[in-house]
Amino acid sequence: MSDEADPDFAGTVHGSSVMIEGRGVLIRGQSGAGKSDLALRLIDRGATLLADDYTQIAREGDAIFGRAPETIAGLIEVRGLGLVPMPHGQSAPIALIIQLIDAPPERHPDPLPSCKLCGLSLPLLMLNGFEASAPIKIELALRHINGQTGGWEPMR
């Protein structure tokens, strides 16, 4: 069992995080996989930065909250520009984990896979973060896990 799957784990994980409509999205992947780039595109669509590259997580009851380590709060790395100040949220309950992959994801996963973080199972969406549709897929996944249906509207 990894430390992160342990119910008592609280600490820093390698991953960027944003908040969309009050729910945290933890974006994980190898260095250079596009975590910051995807976070920046989600922010452009109305998300709020929580943390870039490293996110502190801690279980609080039946939820896992993410926040930025103090040393990097309010900063995001933009390749070609360096570290850029950005408005940010203090913390949010993690509702979805994104795992960035190079290969095309499975076409019809049913149900949406999950992974353990701090002893809780959270929905896991595997996708290529550099695809133009990646931010929209994340918004759709958040709606899907909350049982929302209806017409398409951007989450702004």
Automatic annotation (TrEMBL):
Pfam families xrefs: Hpr_kinase_C
CDD domains: HprK_C
Top-level lineage group: Bacteria
GO biological process: regulation of carbohydrate metabolic process
Annotated InterPro entries: Hpr_kin/Pase_C, P-loop_NTPase, Sigma_54_int_dom_ATP-bd_1
HPr kinase/phosphorylase C-terminal domain boundaries: 12-87
MF terms in GO: ATP binding; phosphorelay sensor kinase activity
Protein name stated in the entry: Aldolase
Species in which this protein is naturally found: Sphingobium fluviale
